[in-house]
Amino acid sequence: MFRTVLVPLDGSELAERALPYAVSLAKPGRAKVVLVRVALPPAPVILDGATLEHDQAEAIDEAEQYVAGVAEKLRTVVPVETSVRYGRAAAGIIESINQDTPDAVVMATHGRTGLAHLLVGSVAEAVIADSSVPVFTIYAQPGELPAPPFDPTEARVVVPLDGSDFAEAALPTVVDLIGTGGELVLVTVVEPPQQLLPDEFGNVLAYLDQQDESLTREARGYLAGVQTKILEKYPRARISTEVCVGTAAAGVIVAAADRVADLVVMASHGRTGVRRAVFGSVTGTVLREGSTPVLVVHPRATSQPTAARQPIDERMAIHF
């Protein structure tokens, strides 16, 4: 269970849509919620910066009044603390994470895509990249009604796996979150074969449908093995498995929709910006294009480094 949940706010209704989820995550363990607002005044009108100190004080005062007002509404439900930082949003949130040491961050994301996303960036993705704790993101789009928060002790949670220790490192966080009341859905995605498999003489060893069947069977066996290991440690856990065929991110998004999942929990290396654009990130794509809330876990923060086991088949790799 979480003891402290940090919620970054920017004064907008969209950002406040993260609050019901934070309360839902905090209540089972009677955790406190820390509301964070990063204050940054507009560029000074006078070039010599004569009004800078006044503008800074005004921005901080406005931010303090805002979080105090939000906290007052929440204190009847959960313990609340407030924090105001000065500077740029992502850097201020990371500073709060390092100093307040929460167990998780809950924040809204607009899910920007395309060139604008690459150039302007996303505060949520920047926080995910540098956070030392899991980051829970919910989708907040103007004009759309917010989805009701779920009870984590009764949640259906999709966890994409690719056969690697890295991906499996997200599992302890999930089990701790849902306990024995929720349902854990283990998912892997098999990329469909693109060509016939010949031997050294050019004879066909396996046709496309045969390769597809073999990969799917191997993936099911892998998931069954993971399920067995979890049940050995948590005998009362509710677990199901699913193998999807297609591209990695699309498979995860479809699996979450088909299972009517409350949450997707994914491991991530935390790539952002140009690195993410060049190397690709399934986690980033699910964040931007999916509609199910996503909890991103950095395995480096939740487990000791180990020799990474490679995916059981390159075509089964989700490449987080």
Précis, in short:
By secondary structure, this protein is of the alpha/beta class. Helix content is 41%, strand content 21%.
Write the layout of secondary structure elements.
Blueprint: E1 4-9, H1 13-16, H2 19-26, E2 32-39, H3 52-74, E3 80-86, H4 89-100, E4 104-109, H5 114-120, H6 123-130, E5 135-139, E6 156-160, H7 165-168, H8 171-178, E7 183-190, E8 197-198, E9 204-206, H9 208-233, E10 238-245, H10 248-258, E11 263-267, H11 273-279, H12 282-289, E12 294-297, H13 299-302
Parallel strand pairs: 1-2, 1-4, 2-3, 4-5, 6-7, 6-11, 7-10, 11-12
Antiparallel strand pairs: 5-12, 8-9
Helix pairs in contact: 4-6, 10-12
Please write the CATH class name of the largest domain.
Answer: Alpha Beta
The separation of the N and C termini measures: 25 Å
Number of domains: 2
Task: Give the name of the CATH superfamily of the largest domain.
Answer: HUPs
Describe the sheet with the most strands.
Answer: 10 strands, mixed
The share of residues in helices is 40-55%
Describe the global form: elongated
Sequence of secondary-structure elements: EHHEHEHEHHEEHHEEEHEHEHHEH
Strand content: 15-25%
CATH topology of the largest domain: Rossmann fold
pLDDT under 50 segments (min length 5)? 113-121, 203-208, 272-280, 301-320
Global mean pLDDT: 79
What is the CATH architecture term of the largest domain? 3-Layer(aba) Sandwich
**Count of separate DSSP helical elements:** 13
Rg, nearest Å: 22 Å
What order do the strands of the largest sheet run in, or round the barrel if closed? 3-2-1-4-5-12-11-6-7-10
Look at the helices and sheets and give the structural class: alpha/beta
